Each structure stands twice: as structure tokens, then as C-alpha cells.
From TrEMBL:
Compositionally biased region (Polar residues): 13-23
Entry protein name: Phosphoenolpyruvate-protein phosphotransferase
Similarity comment: Belongs to the PEP-utilizing enzyme family.
Organism: Microbispora bryophytorum subsp. camponoti
Known function: General (non sugar-specific) component of the phosphoenolpyruvate-dependent sugar phosphotransferase system (sugar PTS). This major carbohydrate active-transport system catalyzes the phosphorylation of incoming sugar substrates concomitantly with their translocation across the cell membrane. Enzyme I transfers the phosphoryl group from phosphoenolpyruvate (PEP) to the phosphoryl carrier protein (HPr).
Alphabetical list of Pfam families matching this protein: PEP-utilisers_N, PEP-utilizers, PEP-utilizers_C
Domain annotation PEP-utilising enzyme C-terminal: ranges: 270-540
Residue spans of biased composition, Basic and acidic residues class: 45-61
NCBIfam families reported in the protein's UniProt record: PTS_I_fam
Length: 578
């Protein structure tokens, strides 16, 4: 059955499933096997004609209590989960408490509308606005729907949406899409794999699956038609979802997984190619709470410290001392390593409650975000750079600071000057905009180093919103055009004797990691669970093989051709051939 065969999908539950295969986008490597748990039980739409008893003040108070109960529950789930899940759920709680939504709900209740229907209609209005905005904001539609359903469940006494926290055996969680609250408290002991019909490589499901080290496939059409309890084998790399596989197929998958794990265990120490070319392997983190995972997976430092998570989900900006404490905790965790800090990357899908909302932007991904927002509020920039300089004083880690979303030489010069004023030398920039990659030779004369954000670079190069499932096929860093942009930036940095790392999701692909090194990338940073996979892949190939693979990939005319060509040049992949 093909991914778009909806009639076939609807008939899955009533046919022989043995050997049936569905296809999606693999976003977290590994093999997962277990019975399907299909997330259902959606909250029904409240009656359109429902009215309250006339006491608008009491009904409004009831709605406010329900919203606060849901927001507090999301925060509590995040606190128990920690890591990236806590940041995501904190942002969702902030969305639930949005004053504009509360005002809209209150206005409808004043007109006599019952609280459940008022919540549904108010959230629906904002849902439509987010969906129409596209870009990062469109990704928030799933979050908003989840909050809405949870609030309505509280108001109506219906069971809260969610997944089982315990099971007799690990299951494959199947859903149309997964809200962060659905996955935050799950563990590898409970869930064998994720499969969703919607979502892309950078959706919340993908991010959380990778942080958990659980195989996942997204954008898999027809998945929710799988009958509950059907045995499912998920390949989180290829994107294949096999229903009712025969025992031999399951045994082969398990054997391959064991072989992969053996290879991972054998690769230890600093990142390097088989012939000793060093490639520092670093972790992407959101704050001190992510340090345990980074250290456990052998991170040599931090290649992307996402400082915006310190600013989100709060009514006031973090104090200078609070910032300094958070930064220093990370610096001290890597006394001999490198820590690359990305300055505040707000805007688009990461609004700050303590700043005035930006003017309406038809496409927020192309609006005021990253460095552009930083320049608009210099007091926020001055406070952060000052806190970073004080935190870096006296530590032995190599602290580097970089700016997101730099598009011009003038922007790079402005940021470098601001960093020098704060006492931070050698400021770098992220290469996320095609103009920056194309004019990298000019930018490197100003910047101390480059760090390539492949997620944004890919979406801008191919005009494919990374949050839209319909164009997920284009959101592929293997595309030769993206590889060319990366190679251009790496070549410019090398010619100037400066470093050029990659901190996007592309670095977590073991095969693509080898290609990136072959193009001159000097360090790789990724979610911590991917570090052993990349370390093992590099250790099995020489620098010359990586260069040959890079040349072969760039000669392709499509992402698929580029990937196939690279595989052909890397025979040492063995058990790591994902």
C-alpha cells in the first residue's frame, strides 16, 4: 500500500495484515517492535447551541479554573520529565495562559455561550490564525488543539486525552499526531516506537523521540487505521512500518539491532576518523538539566546551547545572576571542552511574554527572529552578553558565542562589536540563511567561526517549511543544493583558518556525518543519544573515504541519489547502515 492510499488505509483493520508495509519519514534510528496502541478517544466537539444558566461570572470563573488546571498539569508533567520535554511543555502552559485567549473565551461566555463551547470557538479562532500564518506558528496548531481538548475534558468530566503510562509489554504508539504532553512521561521501558500520520523531521514527536532514544516514523499515511494490538515492526531510519511481520523478519531486525549496539559499544573516546583525523563530537542542549544525558553519551562539549529556553514561559526576563548561574553550570561541566552558546533566538514560534508582541507577520519564519529581534531590544542583548562574559571568567572551558539568523556582513559586524564591548572575543555566526552561505568568504573575515544550522538552511534553500508534513520530502539536508551551500561555507572557513561546525539535525545522521566531515566540517553537534552512532560511523572510515563520499553525494541530482552515492563510498558502515 502506498502512503497516499486512503481507501487501503481504511480497510486495514478488516484484512490480512501479514507483510503489509506503510511508509513514512524515519526521524529516530533503531528498530522497535510491539503491539500497536492506537491513540484515539478524541474529545468530541461541544454542542454548538449549548448555553450556560445565566450566571456569566460563575461560568467564566469555571473556564478560568479549567485552563489553569491544564496549564499546571502541563508544567508538572514537564518538571517530572525534565530536559527538552520540560521546555516544550512549559511553552505549552504559557500558551494556555495567553490573556488574549482568556479574553476571547470570556467574551463568548458573556454572550451566553457555555464554557466548553466558548473554549472550543475561542481556540478555533486562534487555531485558524496559526494555520494561516504558516511557518513555525503552524506547528503550534497541534499544541493548541491539545490544550483545547484538555480544557474541555476538565469542563465536561470526560477522560483526559493521553496514552497509557504502563503496559504489560512495550508497545508501538500510533497516532495522527502526538502532543508533547502525550510523550513527555513515557520511557523506553514503555514505548518501543512512535508512528504518526502527521509531522516532519523537526516536529515535537521527532525531537522527543530522539531525546528518548526511541525509534520513530512520522508522516506515515494510514497509520491510525492499524487495528489496535496488531504487531508492528518500525524502522526508525528508513521510515518503514511493517504490520504483522513474520517471526523470521522480527528475529532478523532484533539481530541487526544487537549488532548495531555492539558496534556502538566498541567505539569510545573522542570523535575521530579511522585514520585519526579529529572531529569533536558535541551535544545540543537547552540548559543544565540536559548535562547528564550529554555526559553519559560521551559529549566532548556543547556545540549548541539554546539559551532561549531560559527566557521562555515567564512573565519577566531572567535576572543577570540567574543567567550567569545557568551558563556557568554548563561551562564547568566541560572543563577542557568547548561550549558554543547561541544567543537568544526568539520570535516566530518562540515569543517572549515580557516583550511587546511583534506586528502581524504573514510568514514569521521570514520576519523578526534571532539576531533581528536581539537588535530590536538591545537591553536584552546587553544583559545576556554581560552575563555570559561574567560566567566565562575563570573557567577552563573554551567558551564561544554565536548569533542566529545572520544574513548580511553588516549584521555580523554589529554582533561582533557588541560581543567585544561585553568582553567576549571571537564571536561566531550561524549559517542558516542561503545568503550567508553564498557570501561566506565575506562573512568569515568578520566572524570568529561558523556553525551551520541545517534545519533552517534546508527549509530556506528549498522553500519547504520544516513544520509542514506535505513538503516533508523536500525538507532533506541530503539535497545536493543544501550540500553545496554547506561545502561553500566550510571551504570559506577553512581558507581563513577558522572552524566550521554543524549543529543541525543533519549531524545526527551517521552517514551524513561522514559526508559533512568529507566536505571540511570541523565539528559535529547533535542530540546526545545520537553521539554514539556518529562516533561509531566515523571510527570505521578514513578521511579520504569521507571525502570520496562527499564528492559522490554532491554529484547526485536528488536527495535520494546523493544518499545512495554516499553509501556506496562508505563500505565500512556494516551494522550502522541505517
Amino acid at each position: 500500500m502506498t502512503p497516499g492510499d486512503e481507501n487501503g488505509a481504511r480497510s486495514l483493520a478488516g484484512t490480512s495484515l501479514a507483510g503489509t508495509s506503510l511508509a513514512g519519514t524515519g526521524v529516530s534510528p533503531g528498530a522497535g517492535y510491539g503491539p500497536a496502541h492506537v491513540l484515539a478517544g478524541e474529545i468530541p466537539e461541544p454542542d454548538k447551541e449549548a448555553r450556560h444558566d445565566g450566571d456569566a461570572a460563575a461560568e467564566r470563573a469555571r473556564a478560568e479554573r479549567a485552563v489553569e488546571e491544564v496549564a499546571a498539569d502541563l508544567e508538572a508533567r514537564g518538571a517530572r520529565a525534565g530536559g527538552e520535554a520540560q521546555e516544550v511543555l512549559g511553552a505549552q502552559a504559557l500558551m494556555a495562559r495567553d490573556p488574549s485567549l482568556a479574553a476571547e473565551v470570556g467574551e463568548l461566555i458573556e454572550r451566553g455561550v457555555a464554557a466548553p463551547r466558548a473554549v472550543f470557538d475561542a481556540f478555533g479562532k486562534y487555531r485558524d490564525l496559526l494555520a494561516a500564518a504558516g511557518g513555525y506558528l503552524a506547528e503550534r496548531v497541534t499544541d493548541l488543539d491539545d490544550i483545547r481538548d484538555r480544557v474541555i475534558a476538565v469542563l465536561t468530566g470526560l477522560p483526559m486525552p493521553g496514552v497509557p503510562a504502563r503496559a504489560d509489554e512495550p508497545f508501538v504508539l500510533v497516532a495522527k499526531d502526538l502532543a508533547p504532553a502525550d510523550t513527555a512521561l513515557l520511557s523506553k521501558d514503555v514505548v518501543a516506537a512512535f508512528v504518526t500520520e502527521q509531522g516532519g523531521p523537526t516536529s515535537h514527536t521527532a525531537i522527543l523521540a530522539r531525546s528518548m532514544g526511541v525509534p520513530a516514523v512520522v508522516g506515515c499515511a494510514g497509520a491510525t487505521a492499524i487495528a489496535p494490538g496488531t504487531s508492528v515492526l518500525v524502522d526508525g531510519a528508513s521510515g518503514q512500518v511493517l504490520l504483522a511481520p513474520d517471526p523470521a523478519r522480527v528475529a532478523a531486525a532484533r539481530a541487526a539491532e544487537e549488532a548495531r549496539r555492539a558496534v556502538l559499544s566498541a567505539a569510545t573516546g573522542p570523535g575521530a576518523t579511522a585514520d585519526g583525523h579529529p572531529v569533536p563530537l558535541l551535544a545540543n542542549i537547552g540548559g543544565p538539566r540536559d548535562l547528564d544525558s550529554a555526559l553519559a553519551n560521551g559529549a566532548e562539549g556543547v556545540g549548541l546551547y539554546r539559551t532561549e529556553f531560559l527566557f521562555l514561559d515567564r512573565e519577566t526576563a531572567p535576572s543577570a545572576s540567574e543567567q550567569e548561574e545557568a551558563y556557568r553550570a554548563v561551562f564547568e561541566a566541560f572543563p577542557q571542552g568547548r561550549v558554543v552558546v547561541r544567543t537568544l533566538d526568539s520570535g516566530a514560534d518562540k515569543p517572549l511574554a515580557f516583550l511587546p508582541p511583534p506586528e502581524e507577520e504573514p510568514n514569521p519564519a521570514l520576519g523578526e527572529r534571532g539576531l533581528r529581534m536581539f537588535r530590536r531590544y538591545p537591553e536584552i542583548m546587553t544583559a545576556q552578553l554581560g552575563a555570559l562574559a561574567r560566567a566565562a571568567a575563570g573557567v577552563s572551558a573554551e567558551v564561544q558565542v554565536m548569533a542566529p539568523m545572520v544574513a548580511t556582513v553588516e549584521e555580523a559586524e554589529w554582533f561582533a562589536d557588541a560581543c567585544r564591548t561585553a568582553g567576549l572575543d571571537g564571536a561566531g555566526i550561524m549559517i542558516e540563511v542561503p545568503s550567508a552561505a553564498l557570501r561566506a568568504a565575506d562573512l568569515i573575515r568578520v566572524a570568529g567561526f561558523f556553525s551551520i544550522g541545517t534545519n533552517d538552511l534546508t527549509q530556506y534553500a528549498l522553500a519547504a517549511d520544516r513544520q509542514v508534513s506535505a513538503v516533508a520530502g523536500l525538507q532533506d539536508p541530503w539535497h545536493p543544493a543544501v550540500l553545496d551551500l554547506i561545502a561553500t561555507a566550510a571551504s570559506a572557513a577553512s581558507a581563513a583558518g577558522k572552524g566550521c561546525g554543524v549543529c543541525g539535525e543533519a549531524a545526527a545522521d551517521p552517514v551524513l556525518a561522514c559526508v559533512l566531515v568529507g566536505m571540511g566540517i570541523t565539528s559535529l553537534s547533535m542530540g546526545a543519544p545520537a553521539l554514539p552512532w556518529v562516533r561509531a560511523a566515523l571510527s570505521r572510515h578514513t578521511l579520504a573515504q569521507c571525502r570520496d563520499a562527499a564528492a559522490a553525494a554532491r554529484s547526485g541530482t536528488s536527495a535520494r541519489a546523493a544518499k545512495a552515492a554516499a553509501h556506496a563510498e562508505l563500505p565500512g558502515l556494516g551494522a550502522l547502515a541505517l
